[in-house]
Design brief:
Elements: H1 2-15, H2 22-33, H3 37-40, E1 41-43, E2 51-54, E3 59-62, E4 69-70, H4 72-81, H5 95-99, E5 125-131, E6 138-143, E7 148-153, E8 158-159, E9 163-165
Antiparallel strand pairs: 1-2, 2-3, 3-9, 4-8, 5-6, 6-7
């Protein structure tokens, strides 16, 4: 029981480590590195141009984020089974990873992604893998229409944007 309580406290401290929202945290780190989205994102030609390496976070994102939608459980399954650019190991992003893509300077109706980004994304709500600790029936996501972070019921049908770690990619960091 003590282990479960310690794990819960650790999870809370990681999830709520600051008074800032995930978008504020992501946008503040992006401001610190002041670079254009043309430098930040690299379309991976050897992955059949189906994936994008984010040099700021070290993550690889699906390039076409507007093709699939489903419930939270369906979103997790789709990412886990995805083979894109002949690569597996995909997953649903955490709320912090997903929010790192938000550019707070892009006005509604979005998508609130950095200008010049290589993604085909729609200005809608996308699932993250992060459950809402206040209501287990909900999970966090990002609304790319206005760049907000919100919690939605897991049975709702929303967009799916898969990600994977960029381990092993040889890209020059910014």
């Amino acid at each position: 029981m003590l282990f479960i309580a310690a794990a819960t406290v650790l999870a809370l401290s990681i999830s709520y480590r600051s008074h800032e929202t995930p978008v504020e945290l992501a946008s503040s780190s992006a401001r610190e590195q002041d670079f254009s989205s043309h430098d930040r994102f690299v379309v991976l030609a050897d992955w059949d141009n189906e994936a994008v390496f984010d040099r700021q976070t070290g993550l690889v994102w699906e390039r076409s984020a507007n093709l699939y939608f489903g419930s939270w459980a369906a979103a997790k399954k789709r990412c886990e089974k995805l083979s894109l650019g002949k690569h597996t190991g995909w997953r649903l992003p955490t709320i912090f990873e997903l929010a790192s893509l938000v550019d707070p300077n892009v006005p509604s109706p979005g998508p609130t992604l950095p200008s010049g980004h290589p993604f085909s994304a729609v200005p809608r709500f996308y699932w993250s893998s992060t459950s809402d600790l206040n209501n287990n029936a909900n999970a966090w996501g990002v609304g790319f229409n206005i760049g907000d972070v919100g919690s939605g019921v897991k049975s709702a049908i929303d967009y799916i944007w898969c990600v994977r770690d960029g381990d092993g990619l040889r890209m020059t960091p910014l």
